[in-house]
Amino acid sequence: MMIDNTQISKILEPLQEVGIISHFRPDGDATGSTLALGLALREMGKRVHMWNEDGVPARFAFLTGAADISRTPATCPEGVQALICVDTGAPKRLGEAGMELLRQAPLSLNIDHHETNTCYAVHNAVDGEAAACGCVIYRLLSDWGRPISRPVAEALYTAISTDTGSFQYASTTPEVMRQAAALIEAGVDVGDINRRLYQEAPLAAFIIQREVLNSMVVEEGGSIAHYSMPAGKKEQLGISLEDTKDLVDIIRVLAGVKVAIIFEDMENGLIRMSLRSKDPRINVAKIAGLFGGGGHAMAAGIRMRGELAACRDKVLQAIRAAVRSLS
User: Fold this and answer.
1) How many other CB atoms are found less than 10 A from the CB of residue 199?
2) For the residues 56-61, what does the mean pLDDT come to?
3) What confidence tier does 295 reach under pLDDT thresholds 50, 70, 90?
4) Which residues pair with 69 in a beta bridge?
5) For residue 109, with 0-12 CB atoms within 10 Å meaning exposed, 13-18 middle and 19 or more buried, which class applies?
6) What's the pLDDT tens digit per position in 62-99?
7) Contact 122, 109 (CB under 8 A)
8) Mind spelling out the 3-state secondary structure of the chain?
9) What angle do CA 8, 117, 106 make, to 5 degrees?
10) What confidence tier does 320 reach under pLDDT thresholds 50, 70, 90?
């Protein structure tokens, strides 16, 4: 059932204890949306649990309340009256424990902006045209008529800024900029938060960048760029799973590239793929959907079981077809 902000307010108003969860391997939008909604509900006097299968990435640990996001529990705490899923297009993206919580929760809400969202909750508030889930939550809090505190504003700014590529992507609409301006007025220190988000990278980030640049493949006349990380490579380089989060952005910026893809052997029978399109005529969400993935027209992901080479070949075949169709 699709609902609007007024209906969400009516649903949440009588509740005293809720849980908020987002997708595994959380990005800035997942973390920021979790914190923004969680902190706002706490300011309303509610008891709020915040969960994620993988916790909080180090680059977002500075946000107020980040330490309160704990690993997803095996069972839903007895007092929780509703589970709110944010920035998550499908239940499997919550992880095994998250899907179990979803099954156990007395009530479920799904707040998101992925156009491929499956509307899996009892109540769904999905805007596939929003630039970030943070934008959806910003409108929700604004419609409630509550002032946005500085911690909530910082979380929302992080969500919106990171999912728009620091306001560089085509999804950066006038509404997005108005929201950002309002968040700055609410106390966001733009210089400080942008320094934390974009100007402080660990050594591991440079190590993996070197690896990607040395090993990437460019084909189809420069229209496709991809990199494959085989099993054991993370250990060889001395990096962690978190360090591989934004690899696709390293090759996406290459001039002439229309589609960039990262193939990563997760070493548990799964191949993770991150797809980015720089040409609006190539919808990578539709390509990802062919293999059980999803996301946005310009940014999508796939998790596929199988051998790295076989999975890569299947997806590249579809991408090559899409690129060739343009000519």
Assistant:
1) 8
2) 94
3) confident
4) 50
5) buried
6) 999 999 999 999 999 999 999 999 999 999 999 999 99
7) yes
8) CECCHHHHHHHHCCCCEEEEEECCCCCHHHHHHHHHHHHHHHHCCCEEEEEECCCCCHHHCCCCCHHHEEECCCCCCCCCCEEEEECCCCHHHHCHHHHHHHHHCCCEEEEECCCCCCCCCCEEEECCCCCCHHHHHHHHHHHCCCCCCHHHHHHHHHHHHHHCCCCCCCCCCHHHHHHHHHHHHCCCCHHHHHHHHHCCCCHHHHHHHHHHHHHCEEEHHHCEEEEEECCCHHHHHCCCHHHHCCCHHHHHCCCCCCEEEEEEECCCCEEEEEEEECCCCCCHHHHHHCCCCEECCCEEEEEEECCHHHHHHHHHHHHHHHHHHCC
9) 45
10) very high
Q: Are strands 224-229 and 217-219 parallel, antiparallel or unpaired?
A: antiparallel
Q: Give residue 296's pLDDT band: very low, low, confident or very high (50, 70, 90).
A: confident
Mean pLDDT on 263-289: 93
Parallel/antiparallel/unpaired status of strands 123-126 and 69-71: unpaired
pLDDT at 309 over 90: yes
Q: How close are the terminal C-alpha atoms of the chain, in Å? A: 41
Q: How far is CA 166 from the centre of its chain?
A: 14
| C-alpha torsion 1→139→30→203, nearest 10 | 160
- The dihedrals phi and psi of 35, each to the nearest 5 degrees, come to -70, -40
Quick check: 276 and 296 in contact, CB under 8 A?
Answer: no
CB 228 within 8 A of CB 263: yes
For the chain, how big is the Rg over CA atoms in Å? 19
202 pLDDT above the threshold of 80: yes
- The pLDDT of residue 39 is above 90: yes
Q: State how far the Cα of 325 lies from the Cα of 327, in Å rounded to an integer.
A: 5
Cα angle 114, 283, 194 (rounded to 5 degrees) comes to 55
